[in-house]
Amino acid sequence: MSKKLLLEIVTPDRKVLSQDVEYVGAPGALGEFGVLPNHIPFLSALGIGNLYYKDGGKTHYVFVSGGFAEVGPDKVTILAEAAEKATDIDLERARKAQDRAQQRLARAQDKIDYARAQASLRRSLARLTCRTSGERSGTC
Ligand code: ATP
What we know:
Number of helices: 2
Bound molecules: adenosine-5'-triphosphate
Number of strands: 8
Mean pLDDT: 96
């Protein structure tokens, strides 16, 4: 029985991570799910939020936004629209995106404007939380 599983995170632009880990927690579209080695295979859509993985007694955080997760017995593949390790998150950019989204929400004219601004706000807040979680866990 394998004690680790390979976590691969890719976006349309780049490979964000490829690492053997002990546990993965991911923001599924229907709620968070957790994966240990030898899990039964399944597919899930991803929401906007923070994936985390445990390795060597440490917890590492990665922001993910949309896409899919494919879980196999010894591998988790994340195909995300956007993803950044906590260390790679530009805090200033996320704060500016948060301000912009809040201003757009305040003056949204229709449902589409509102939904876009809300998604943008959720991405910025998740990025800020991801970075803070990484700093708290001592992994960024
Ligand atoms: P912004 O308005 O700042 O572009 P966004 O939420 O619209 O934010 P996305 O569409 O999610 O941005 O991502 C576009 C690209 O920019 C992706 O490659 C993503 O990894 C990167 N990116 C966005 N925000 C940040 C950030 N705060 N730090 C690092 N990379 C970021």
